[in-house]
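Support case: user asked for a sample of complex input and structure output to validate their parser. Sending the pair below.
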Amino acid sequence: MEPADRTIDESELGLPSEPMLLNVGPSHPAMHGTVRLVVELSGERILRADVQVGYLHRGFEKMCERGTWSQCFPYVDRCNYVSPMLNNVGFALACEKLLGVEVPERCQWYRMVLGELARIADHLTCTAAMAMELGAFTPYLWMVRARDMIWDVFEEECGARLTHSFGRVGGMAHPPTSTFKEHTASVIAHVLRLLDEVSRLLLNNRIFLDRLQNVGRISAEDAISLGWTGPALRGCGVPYDVRKAHPYLRYGEVDFDVPVGTAGDCFDRYVVRLEEVRQSARIIEQALARLPDDGPISIDDPRVMLPPKSEVYATIEATIQHFKIVMEGLKLPTGEVYSYTEGGNGELGFYLVSDGSGTPYRVRIRPPSFLITAGLERLITGEMMADVVPCFGSLNMIGGECDR
Amino acid sequence: MNWVEFTLDAAKAVFVVAVLSLGIGGLLTWADRRQGAMIQDRIGPNRAVLWLPKRLAQALALGPALLVAAGMVAVALVSRSLAGEARTERAFVFGHLAVLLVWLTGLSVSRVVAARGVRSSFDAFVAWIGDSRRFFFAGLVAHGLVALPGMTLRGTAVGHHLREFAFGGAPFVFALVAVFGAVYAALAMERADKVGLRIAGLLHPAADGLKTLFKEDFVPPNADRFLHGLAPIVTFFPALVLLAVVPFGDTLCFAPNAAGVLDWASLLEPLASVPAGGTCEVGVRLQVVDLNIGLLYVFALSGTGIVGAALAGWSSDNKYSLLGGLRAASQMVSYEVTLGLTVVGALMIYGTPRFGEMVAWQATHAWGIFTQPLAAILFFTAAIAESKRIPFDLPEGESEIVAGYFTEYSGMKFTMFFFSEYVAVATIGVLMTTVFFGGWHVPFLDRDGFRVAIGESVVAQQALSHVVVVLLGVVAFLGKVILLCMLQLTIRWTLPRLRYDHLMRLGWRLLLPASLVNILLTGLVLLAVEGAGEQILAALAVLVDLSMAALAVGALGAGVALVSYWLRPVRRTRMPRTSAVRLAERLGGTRTARMGA
């Protein structure tokens, strides 16, 4: 694709002209209702762009400091409203790191399957929304249908389709249901089929390629200096994936590849996401095979885990244990910890400080989206107005975790 | 012009506006909504419902059916005295009509029973037969059984008895089944207090239109009120009057009276048949006006659509509107050039800008798609760009510039923009049909009936009466238009949006040179054909017939493919029944269940 026609200098036309200041968002279809963009336009070309975030700031980190550790789970859920399970697992892992425990094997595989399902849901949402914002409506409906099936799995597992609050420090709220393996396997098969259809439709389409290729380019150095991680960084050719670089759970034992791009443009970010869905499906397949059918789902530690409800109602010991954990919160040892996992958009870090009481002293979330959105200005300056859409879409900015 | 002609012209104008503009526009709105609903597995436009009191609904079901049955019996009684070949033909038609109605009724009842469950012993019988497709296949077999004796047993005693049997029995079977179906429907309504009239969701576009009439008409405080109000009218009006010059059927011939002009009495006597290639003295053109500038009128009017979009963008006092208006103006002006140049080739071949004569040329020679294939593709592309729909919907570009030039429009003014887009789709279909797809022409259909011939060798022949031939033409025209509209709909649901500079590059660097090349090539071919010898001309004539044969075979094949596609059972992925599904079932419905009336 050749670059846009930008050879005409307006001063040659002999007409007085000045750039138009356009306020895009936060109530604008492309801005997902969460970002404001002030652009200076010369015709269709963006001369200057000012990206303003913070419209979805809800004070989650501060709110975490007034409850117990377990009460943080709903907040981290709402940080990322496209792959909340990854946040759940990430936060649970951080707490467990501070606690110095490791969950049983069954729980580890279970968390991996759920996490990868959430990742697929995330990537499907992002790629679908991007196609739709470029005007291709059918792929959007196809992919959202696939995502809905994944949400059916979550609904069956934990009762909620979006905000699961399913993770617990030291395990999960429930063991997998009896149909979990069968259900997940059939959903994944269907998702991959839909994905193939969508890929065939979009990736052979000249218009779609023209809209993405060579648009919103960024070099690997720039991306690293901005602190980018995840698919956006891998699109630039940097094969950094927390799951490979610093394996957690059982990621070291499964076989999967880290797809990387070459050009660092919107198309690479798009294709990397599509391929990651397939890799996630591979991980799920292996994890399902190794997920034990029985065994404990949580650690066996009465100081951490709530006793079963039947015992709470029947025995005084369990009642007291339940009361203490619920009212005082589980006591994480004094200290601080930084734990990081691969979220939907990159490295999702939790920096926890505990003063030994039942309440977090500080919960700092390192969202991948915040740092990635910082690069938007660089991506769109000098591009056309229409390029804002694929550039912003390919970053998959999640307002909840960016603004927290 | 006398009163008869005036009345006819008014009727034609109403027909064009109602069917071509509003009808197809409404149909497209419906199809767009239905497409989205089907993919998302939610309730589509079927929600639009007109509640009728039970008795009225029953009367609506019974009345027409009784009339049809009575009419059938009357026709059977009137044609009792026919003899010979005419009697055989009539028996043939009666037999097929009866079979058609039987399997259609069976299929409908079977679908109803499958949807709402068995309620009576008859329902149980229908359910026992099983899948509703079986009625269709049984119907096909029955049609074959009716047709077979007509071809093999003609002239034998058995054939004679069979003919008399069909002649006497079939109309009464038809009447009985019609009445039975209506009574069955009326009885099915008996349980309800009121009956919903849905017409497959076609009421939805009407409801949409009605709704927007009552919406607030918002004008931005600093907008130019006059221009803001003028813009939708300037956009809507040309879209409506554009189709006046397009012929939607062949000339309908009437028996000439003494004065040689059309009067009320002669309207009742259309000619029984017109010889192939013959003309008639007293005829009614199925075209509102036959302007001698034809195609130029269309371009002139569609050019004013640009003004509407630009005005809307300018007068709204909104930067997004301004961007949209600018995009609309530059895009439409650019593609207007290509649009005009692509039809130059067609004008060179047809030698006239009049649509009627273009269709006549295509009927006697070959369709434009064969003589001007490149121009057809270019014209279609440029015309879609003119209609401002995906992939050329930059002027709206809802994810980039909110809603483009009609960002600040609401209520009926918005609907006028919205609807003129749909009418533009219909217009493109009509223009493509008329210029490149033979207008109302049906392959091998002459003025006196079907005559399948390649070169000199006649393959098959079937005489038809004049009115039937003209009606077939009208139906073919509408069918072609709807097919082309559906093609545009498919494009709209498949392709992403172009970027502004890509759009300009496509228009000026690809389509424009290609259309110039097309003119050059057309000129060369025309010169070559003029200088060609007898043999080459004869070969060309055979080629023309072959092109018609290819069209006929293609259309039949497409029809068969479509029917078999519809008949194929839907393949659903089997998923484990989750607890949510089980709960829904326990509560008396599943997630895929329909919403109750």
